[in-house]
């Protein structure tokens, strides 16, 4: 279940959105690492603010909130106060697949081919679930090694649904594509 989180809590979790807590830069805003009162680290993503974006924010919040799959980064909470719109995700600690494949951050060895194949299969399972098995259909549209995060066990998690399209189905037919 997606929980509403106050802006005050997010300020406390991120040290007032301190630049030392920046873990990424999205298309419009920064992404921060923060520790909420439950003690677990979270990734807090700021969203672009505009009147036309309001409807997309609500749709995406509802859609992402019900995506529950082992290979999808879970949305845990949101904040919508004043002009701020933020999404709170589970923090995935082991960088992106891109970082591991391209020996970033001083790493000297990338993982073996067997692990690469396992990761590829699990990404495919996540995509198959998005396309065929969840309550609605999600087309990612921006899948790359940068949008695949790896947890401490190298389990891949699909992230970055900012460009995604959500398709509604009725009796097996596409009713309405919605660009998010």
Characterize the structure shown:
This protein is α+β, with helices and mostly antiparallel strands. It has two domains: 3-90, Phosphorylase Kinase, domain 1, CATH 3.30.200.20; 97-179, Transferase(Phosphotransferase), domain 1 (Orthogonal Bundle). 27% of the residues lie in helices and 30% in strands. It contains four helices and eleven strands. The chain has helices at residues 7-13, 51-65, 97-101, 113-133, and strands spanning 3-4, 22-25, 30-35, 41-46, 75-81, 84-90, 137-139, 148-150, 156-158, 165-170, 173-179. Strands 1-5-6-4-3-2 form a six-stranded mixed β-sheet, sandwiched between helices. A three-stranded antiparallel β-sheet has the order 7-10-11. A two-stranded antiparallel ribbon has the order 8-9. The radius of gyration is 17 Å and the shape is globular. The mean pLDDT is 82. It is a single-pass type I membrane protein. It is found in: Membrane. It comes from Quercus rubra. GO terms for molecular function: ATP binding; protein kinase activity. Residues 17-180 form the Protein kinase domain.
């Amino acid at each position: 279940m997606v929980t509403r989180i106050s802006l005050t809590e997010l300020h406390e979790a991120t040290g007032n959105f301190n630049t030392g807590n920046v873990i990424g830069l999205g298309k419009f805003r920064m992404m921060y690492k923060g520790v909420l009162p439950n003690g677990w680290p979270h990734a807090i993503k700021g969203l672009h603010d505009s009147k036309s974006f309001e409807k997309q924010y609500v749709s995406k919040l509802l859609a992402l909130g019900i995506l529950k799959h082992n290979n999808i980064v879970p949305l845990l909470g949101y904040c919508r106060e004043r002009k701020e719109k933020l999404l709170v995700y589970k923090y995935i600690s082991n960088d992106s697949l891109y970082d591991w494949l391209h020996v970033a951050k001083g790493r000297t060895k990338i993982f073996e081919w067997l692990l690469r194949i396992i990761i590829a299969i699990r990404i495919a399972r996540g995509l198959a679930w998005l396309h065929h098995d969840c309550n609605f259909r999600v087309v990612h549209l921006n899948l790359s090694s940068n949008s695949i995060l790896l947890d401490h066990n190298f389990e891949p998690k699909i992230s970055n649904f900012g460009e995604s399209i959500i398709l509604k189905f009725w009796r097996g037919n596409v009713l309405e594509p919605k660009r998010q």
